Amino acid sequence: MSSLVKLVQTEARLFVRDPTSLLIGLLLPTVILVGLGAVPILREPSADMGGARFIDYFAPSVIVMSVAVIGLTTLPAVMAGYRERGVLRRMRTTPVHPGKLLVAQLVVNVAAALVSALLVVVAGRLAYGVPLPRNPLGFALAFVLGITAVFAIGMLVAAVASTARAASGISTVLFMSVMFFGGVYLPRFMLPEAVARVGDYVPPGVQTLLDSWNGESPDAVQLLVMAVVAVAAGAASARIFKWE
Question: What sections of the protein cross the membrane (predicted)?
């Protein structure tokens, strides 16, 4: 078994054993969706949303939460904590390059974000009949680019934060911003028009998820922005990341 596979297995076990990562990262978005759906009025068609139900409209925003909570909070804090405790420095004295630990963290956390998003979709469908994405290919493309952009930003935070506390502080600001622009705190139709338009281009790009969820094609410019953010943040994090 290769060292990378062993690292992935180890990081996966650590993730599962951490109640904060498991409960907040994996389950909280689904719990929020199920809890909101339990309110009868939120399962009724609304004129403000073109006849759609609030629970249907809100599902993509909950997926934004599932991606952001792992990519912008869990991943940066763990990597900064490893650096602060000297884990990365000690790994440099072994045959296993610390870069493999970075890859293992990305694999585990991306997988966790995918599972979290899948739980939201399945729970919404089974509990309240929330429709599946009507443009699955467009939704998959928007989701992949969006999650890549978010995780690239998360790695950039991990690169610039010297301690877990610093990473947590930066991540909290970014996470709250993504939640606001993503329509988690307030539905996007209640936001000022200018704010909602800014939110169209804030990773992971909630509008592209909404469009493809409703059967439309995601906006090419918004997808391009997600790709540019992913490349720029990823390149910057790779350039400035310090192992100790």
Answer: 21-42, 62-82, 102-127, 139-161, 173-191, 220-241
**What are the pLDDT digits (tens) for 137-162?**
999 999 999 999 999 999 899 888 88
- Residue pair 155/241 in contact (Cβ under 8 Å)? The answer is yes
Kindly report the pTM of this predicted structure: 0.87
| Confidence grade of residue 1 (pLDDT, cut at 50, 70, 90) | low
Angle between helices 206-213 and 220-240 (to 10 degrees): 140
Class of residue 194 by CB neighbours under 10 A (exposed 0-12, middle 13-18, buried 19+): exposed
How many Cβ atoms sit within 10 Å of the Cβ of residue 51? Answer: 8
Rg of the Cα atoms in the chain: 18
Structural domain of 14: 3-240
83: which residues sit within 8 A by CB, 6+ positions away?
89, 162, 242, 243, 244
Contact 29, 123 (CB under 8 A): no
Q: Do 42 and 36 meet the contact criterion of CB atoms below 8 Å apart? A: yes
Number of domains into which the chain is organized: 1
Residue 238, classed as helix, strand or coil, is helix
